[in-house]
Write a structure and sequence with these properties.
The chain has 234 residues and is an alpha/beta fold. The protein is 38% helix and 26% strand. It has 2 domains: 155 residues, P-loop containing nucleotide triphosphate hydrolases (Rossmann fold, 3-Layer(aba) Sandwich), CATH 3.40.50; 66 residues, no CATH class. The two termini are 34 Å apart.
Length: 234
């Protein structure tokens, strides 16, 4: 489904991503783990078109996304849940969700998808007319995920969904990610909480200073001594 090949991204003279390659197969949860500054968010922004790479290709179902404007990438079935949630604070929960479906024309399906989002996130239904900026951090994360689902994506990019959340909410968010995946959405997950990410991932990659240094199944990397020492407190 998604294939990244020899991707290079620079900020000015600084090479943030140094020729990485990885893929996400249809129906999988794939995670990129790594420390702050490893290049995880930069990789996500390149995939969703917010950053233009210097070289390499990003293929979604065979189409190279590096040649397509970011607003058109959404219409191709890729949606990103950004780091820090980035909800529209002044708009209501419902208005945020409607904005997620901005490019869609199938009104009946949009309404059905909104009900599905409310089923997945009952707290959002209770707060549907509340301004998004008044929600708790966990509720805003749920709203950001719901808004992405309203784009009806084939693949969802999640950037640090557990950041700043209590352990109880972290567990809830990861359960919801699994549920979203079971319902048919492929997931690419960037996460500092390596233990949680590896526990739900079909495949995983370790990103260190712009390079992929390890890869394997989530289970294999969770057992790897180098990963345990660097990311799992082992």
């Amino acid at each position: 489904m998604l294939k990244v090949e020899n991707l290079v991204v620079r900020y000015g003279m600084i090479e943030a991503i140094k020729g990485i390659s990885f893929e996400v197969n249809d129906g999988e949860i794939v995670t990129l783990i790594g420390a702050n500054g490893a290049g995880k968010t930069t990789t996500m922004h390149a995939i969703s078109g917010l950053l233009k790479p210097v070289s390499g290709s990003i293929l979604l179902d065979g189409t190279d996304l590096t040649k397509i404007p970011s607003h058109q990438i959404v219409t191709m079935g890729l949606a990103q849940v950004p780091e820090g949630r980035r909800v529209f604070a002044q708009e209501t929960v419902e208005e945020n969700l409607i904005l997620g479906a901005y490019f869609r024309k199938d009104k009946d399906k949009i309404q059905a998808d909104m009900e599905n989002v409310f089923e997945l996130f009952p707290r959002l239904k209770e707060r549907r007319l509340q301004a998004a900026g008044t929600l708790s951090g966990g509720e805003q994360q749920m709203l950001a995920m719901g808004r992405a689902l309203m784009a009806d994506p084939k693949i969802m990019l999640l950037d640090e969904p557990s950041m700043g959340l209590s352990p109880l909410l972290v567990s809830e968010i990861f359960s919801i990610i699994e549920e979203i995946n079971k319902k048919g959405t492929t997931v690419l997950l960037v996460e500092q909480n390596a233990k949680r990410a590896l526990a739900i991932a079909n495949h995983a990659y370790v990103l260190e200073t712009g390079r992929i240094t390890l890869e394997g199944t989530g289970e294999e990397l969770a057992r790897d001594e180098r990963v345990q020492k660097a990311y799992l407190g082992g």
